[in-house]
Design goal:
Blueprint: E1 2-5, H1 12-20, H2 23-37, E2 44-48, H3 56-61, E3 65-70, H4 73-85, E4 92-94, E5 106-111, H5 122-135, E6 136-147, E7 158-165, E8 168-180, E9 185-195, E10 200-210, H6 214-222, E11 227-233, E12 251-258
Parallel strand pairs: 1-10, 2-3, 2-5, 3-4, 5-6
Antiparallel strand pairs: 6-12, 7-8, 8-9, 9-10, 11-12
Length: 259
Amino acid sequence: MDIIDGDIYDYPRYYDLVFGSDWKAEFEFLEDCFRRHVSGETRRLFEPACGTGRLVYRFAEAGYQISGLDLNPHAIGYCNARLERRGLKPTAFVGDMSDFTLPRPVDAAFNTINSFRHLQTEKSAHAHFQCVAAALRSGGIYVLGLHLTPLEGAVCDEESWSARRGHLCVNTHMLTTSRDMKKREERCAMSYMVHTPKRSFQLSSEVIFRTYTSDQMARLLAKTPDLNIVGVYDFAYDMEEPVEIGPQTEDVVFVLQKS
């Protein structure tokens, strides 16, 4: 079997399948967040690190005004092409989620699948929150999902899952190969086993995340006083089951409201 080393984000068709299969739970949870936590009506949305736009085009089809940004031009091209095929405006653009401005404030923003942790420094992470705060109107919210590093109990270091669309099947494996809490760096080996009717091959890549304990995340959020925590959930996406963050917490979804 062929093995291709490279950036998994340069293959948006496979990335979209791997990370897009569970979109419905996220979509419904976000709409619940809009209803519960946004002050006033929610019409304008923004997704930093939108990737292939697996949620962008669905919110656009639902009648929201939405835009997104991502560093990867392949992902943005894929996102905009999909919007255009559906008769929608190509509103995604290439950009840095720690250095952006929007032409008009939005009612809500979201980043739900750990993309925030691609920011490698405290400076860039803080800049991200400042950009988001500037992009939100008063009473608007930012929904941020990420994995914390628990200080007690087991840490999930390995995960595998499969997704299929038509004749395309991708089996994904993600393994933490190292975690340096002093450097705040977690390195993960990620592979796609891609199967089509004519070919099977493997895409392999390394992904680097910044680590956050619950206390480190709390201190970071405190640096942006315009964003206040109004809800904390987990990846079960159950609005009726908010969570309290403790030393064993790993999956967390913050709802931050602009004052």
